[in-house]
Q: What sequence folds into this?
């Protein structure tokens, strides 16, 4: 959430000459994105986001992300594709980093989406899943189920510094989930995998953009809805569930993409999985970010607490959720 | 250089209703400013910078800064005044911080300004000094000459960790400067006091904005030119002086505001003062910023080295500049 790589105005003006986008008028480093450096760039023709990819986004994955955005944009979905230069290239290099010039989308990310906004987000997610039916590329989910146990072990007993007994409880919940995770033969497709309200731009109740596809991957389709549900339907502490918002998200999704019976019955397990995924990644960041760093550490327990809503029976077995 | 205070889209939309500026369309936290939080805000009518003032800018000083910007803007200078709300207020509170909605100016900050651009900056600075002849308010320079010795003592012997002997050399240079600093009876006025290329927006060779007035104060007028000269005429290491750029800055200034004989002869002492001011403040930041913090620490010695150009005789007496 900062600008890690400085791009001088002179270098940026030179970079823009590769494209047919007019001349540089303004550039502001913006505090957005998952450990990328982003600039809001204005030219004599239009506005753009310039993204320089730092450590978390592997250069090798960019062709997948950009192909997915092109695919969705071509089907009319409100996603920001990369701008092609005069030779048709989307992925460039700038200041030693992979870099893309990306379409700017209006709209704001809401902190407290209402029912109508959640319904719109669900619809948009369902529409994306419809649209990727013929998307040909695959990318493993580097933050998928198989990664959770190794991440738990890398965090290790330090987790008990966040909440006494957390390591044991996470290990128990993971073991519980392992028994059911793969058995249902749920449909898989390209998923966003990180559809937080942060990553949806809105004007009023209308969606103007779905952004930040840098966790996109091939995984269980319903898991994408489960992540969104866990992300949209709770307050920031994870203590308070807004059932109306949660239901609206599922209803909106179902309008675009009806859920099967097996999906309905699997939903809560997948939501517990989503909770574990973000509890673990936030815990890892928490344990590895100095308390005084400028990056805001997000409370890992805020996602852990959501398990009480998705699997109350499991939660009673977990002292950290008592 | 980060967003310290988060403003939700909902809170921002509500805040904007105080003004006659249209409705919120987009908001991006931007990585700019001296420890303030800044957002680039777009409405259905225009674009603005929303600034929330964090610790370094005292709320008590905001009326001075805003009055100065209004004064300069009223005289047609390209500075960004605060937008008045429907009741005529410029200074607000948002998320518990003093906050202003500020006019957005196009243009980019250059990293390597050329001769024509330096001349334009000098002209603009001279024009500002002409324009403040009838500006009635005063503000002491909290980073002025009187503050340097106390700041040196607060840094103390830790300075020798930056360069062996630095404490002694800075103390010597300060003592040398103290003999001449006040004797000339140089004219005083409201000055910008921080006119780095960062704080000047340009399109081509034309200035579109002078920004970041949060060090503005009443001090020796020529000192403002000395700060700008030291900031514009060297590479980032402080080793390489670009005489053509330096001369252009002074020539441009002189076109707006001719220098007196006494000012000509005092210029190099004031430039040494400017070097000391930024060496000391950067040294303080250096000693008090963890090496792994997201804030980039600026090399204090880069300003110290400039003394070799402004006072070669003094520099020969200083082992750290040998």
A:
């Amino acid at each position: 959430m900062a600008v890690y790589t400085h791009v001088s105005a002179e270098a940026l003006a030179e970079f823009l000459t590769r494209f047919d986008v007019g001349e540089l008028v303004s550039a502001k480093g913006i505090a957005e994105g998952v450990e990328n450096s982003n600039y809001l760039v204005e030219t004599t023709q239009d506005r753009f986001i310039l993204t320089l990819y730092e450590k978390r986004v592997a250069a090798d994955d960019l062709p997948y992300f950009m192909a997915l955005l092109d695919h969705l944009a071509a089907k009319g979905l409100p996603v920001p594709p990369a701008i092609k230069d005069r030779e048709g290239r989307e992925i460039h290099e700038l200041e030693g980093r992979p870099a893309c010039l990306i379409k700017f989308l209006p709209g704001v990310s809401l902190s407290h989406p209402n029912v109508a906004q959640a319904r719109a987000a669900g619809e948009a997610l369902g529409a994306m899943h419809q649209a990727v039916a013929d998307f040909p590329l695959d990318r493993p989910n580097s933050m998928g189920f198989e990664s959770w146990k190794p991440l738990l072990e890398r965090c290790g007993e330090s987790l008990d510094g966040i909440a006494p007994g957390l390591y044991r409880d996470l290990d128990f919940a993971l073991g519980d989930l392992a028994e059911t995770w793969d058995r249902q033969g749920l449909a898989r497709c390209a998923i966003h995998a990180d559809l937080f309200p942060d990553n949806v731009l809105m004007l009023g109740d209308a969606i103007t953009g779905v952004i930040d596809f840098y966790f996109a991957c091939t995984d269980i389709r319903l898991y994408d809805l489960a992540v969104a549900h866990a992300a949209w339907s709770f307050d920031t502490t994870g203590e308070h569930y807004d059932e109306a918002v949660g239901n609206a998200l599922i209803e909106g999704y179902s309008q675009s993409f009806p859920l099967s019976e097996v999906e309905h019955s699997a939903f809560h397990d997948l939501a517990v999985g989503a909770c574990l995924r973000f509890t673990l990644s936030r815990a890892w960041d928490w344990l590895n970010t100095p308390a005084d760093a400028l990056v805001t550490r997000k409370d890992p327990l805020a996602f852990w607490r959501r398990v009480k809503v998705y699997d109350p029976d499991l939660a009673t077995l977990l002292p950290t959720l008592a």
User: Anything to note?
Assistant: Chain B has two domains: 9-103, 115-321.
